[in-house]
Write a structure and sequence with these properties.
The protein is an alpha/beta fold. The protein is built from 10 helices and 7 strands. 45% of the residues lie in helices and 11% in strands. α3 packs across α5 and α4 packs across α5. The two termini are 20 Å apart.
Length: 289
């Protein structure tokens, strides 16, 4: 896996939630060659041994189950330890979710039928937001309880934590909730990880403005997942979706890692082409990112 990426011209990678325990030894041995560096780890990495498929939400800090929350904290600590051992500076976190609702799926169905901003669309959108609000308070209490253990653990080990923006309104945080999160955690304890595809999907569903959201959080940004998206599909090659790259990329601080996060069906040639398009838009060079 790592050899294929290096063969495509990459000098740095993010290790994600598809790295099983059985792959760890091989990953470490490959990285000992010193030709490839690790910028970041996406929680959970390695994947919990009981989870059989790549799933960053297999354990949630917001879960009703105290046992699941304890397991999520333990596996996050293991990810932090792995990041420190590999010299990766950042661990990317999904913070959790509010108990889901079928209204968002109905909303997607209305959009497929071309009903954006129609009465049905607006009614479903308001219903979804009201249902989310009912469960948000307790979900955030559980998240902060977990972060209360994770944040000092990461601080002691010199690993930074970054909360990722999400694509569903039932996931935490909503764009209106970032400010309260920053009030609770100092800059050095918790940063922001932008996901271009997630935010573009949210904008496409009329739940946010991509430019405004990125501009508001740029002071905390530690890195970004780069992929293109429309309102219904994401993790696509750069340039084949609705992301306004020329308008958004100037908002990014210099020197942060930009991680191409593509679907498995994206061919290698399109991954390389995405990197080249991105480098061109950044001024002809990826700046070591």
């Amino acid at each position: 896996m790592l050899g294929e990426l290096e063969g495509m011209g990459f000098t740095a990678v993010e290790l994600g939630h598809g790295i099983r325990q059985s792959l760890v030894e091989g990953v470490v041995k490959y990285l000992e060659r010193g030709t490839l560096r690790v910028t970041s780890l996406h929680n959970f990495c390695p994947l919990p041994i009981e989870v059989l498929r790549s799933d960053p939400d297999c354990l949630e800090f917001s879960s009703r189950s105290s046992m699941e929350r304890r397991r999520a904290v333990r596996m996050t600590r293991e990810t932090i330890d792995f990041a420190k051992a590999l010299g990766a500076g950042v661990v990317v976190l999904h913070l959790g979710s509010v108990r889901g609702s079928a209204t968002e799926r109905e909303l997607v169905g209305v959009m497929r039928g071309g009903g954006v901003y129609g009465r049905r669309h607006v009614a479903l959108k308001l219903t979804a937001l009201r249902r989310r609000e009912l469960g948000a308070g307790i979900a955030w209490e559980r998240v902060h309880e977990c972060l209360g253990e994770i944040v000092p653990y990461a601080r002691e080990r010199g690993v930074r934590l970054a909360a990722e923006c999400r694509s569903s309104i039932f996931e935490l945080p909503l764009e209106t909730e970032w400010a309260a999160l920053w009030d609770k955690y100092p800059v050095g304890d918790l940063g922001y990880w932008h996901d271009f595809g997630h935010m573009q999907r949210k904008e496409g569903m009329t739940f946010g403005d991509h430019w405004e959201s990125l501009a508001a959080e740029r002071a905390r940004i530690l890195g970004a997942h780069v992929h293109d998206a429309g309102p219904l599909k994401d993790h696509r090659p750069v340039g084949v979706g609705d992301v306004a790259w020329e308008r958004l990329l100037p908002l990014l601080p210099e020197g942060i890692p930009l991680v191409l996060e593509m679907n498995p069906w994206v061919e290698a040639a399109n991954v390389v082409a995405s990197r080249e398009r991105l480098a061109t838009m950044l001024g002809g060079s990826d700046g070591g990112r």
